[in-house]
Amino acid sequence: MTVEWKDMMLDKVAIGPVSARVYQGADYGKGPPIVLYLHGGAFLDSETNVDRPVAMSLAKSGAIVAAVDYSSLSGNLFPQALEVSFSVLTYLANKRAGLGDRKSLLFVAGEEAGGNVAAGVALKARDQMPDALDGQVLISPLLDPFMGTSSIRKAEAIGMRQRWTDGWSHYLSGGGCHPYAAPCLCSRLSGVAPALIFTAEDDPLHDETLGYGARLKKAGVGVRQHVLPAGTGWPSIYGGKSEGVPDWQEHVSRHFESFLRDVSVQPQLH
């Protein structure tokens, strides 16, 4: 499916106007799913109006994907990044911002640092607006501020170890470590929206991603997880060094499309 995009301003969000790049398939159907997409960047990047290949891959499934600039208003700090993102989700839940209609399913998605914020948004949505969120898509989410897993040892080789260390220090510089800031530390995961989780064999975030998925399952949350083989260029998603041409896009599109069908037929995925 051909994907088109346009830049727009979500000017009625409670926290203030938020810019977004909206991706949608040229032939999306009636009542298309709406995805709030949160970009990566190790809690350090604040680029706006740039191409988001993950968002484009999600849009190829027929969804309308709003890649919002949560960084400019938040400075990539906790809790501001979470509050901006949750405010946009609340707006989309109430009004859909003219994207889709009230029958449209609502999802939050993000990769790397954005995957962290997406997981936090899903937890807060469970606590403050139950049943409003239909699913979460976590793409190599950056979840462990202690960076203590075995797979994270691969981060040095792809040039991400120091970047993630600096990013965590920046994001948590306000002090403390709330469960919304580090979802892998959250002790209560039951009732959160069904999750679609992606990682790869050569992903330094492999262990914390699958560890979080396992904890969600144990809490009774519906989880679909996919581990791509090494060599698909997966680390390039968040700026890591990777040999060869990335070919992960089709995997993301196909599995997200399947997840959409599952949620539509069986919302709880339990």
Short structural description:
The protein is an alpha/beta fold. The chain has helices at 53-59, 70-74, 80-95, 113-128, 161-171, 206-218, 249-265, and strands at 3-10, 18-25, 34-38, 64-68, 106-111, 135-139, 195-200, 223-228.
Notable traits:
Rossmann fold, GDXG_lipolytic_enzyme, 270 residues, 31% helix, single chain, hydrolase activity, eight-stranded mixed beta sheet, Alpha/beta hydrolase, alpha/beta, AB_hydrolase_3, hydrolase, 8 strands
Describe this structure in words.
This protein is of the alpha/beta class. The chain has one domain: Alpha/Beta hydrolase fold, catalytic domain (Rossmann fold). The protein has 7 helices and 8 strands, in the order βββαβααβαβαβαβα. Strands 1-2-4-3-5-6-7-8 form an 8-stranded mixed beta sheet, sandwiched between helices. Helix 1 packs across helix 7 and helix 3 crosses helix 4.
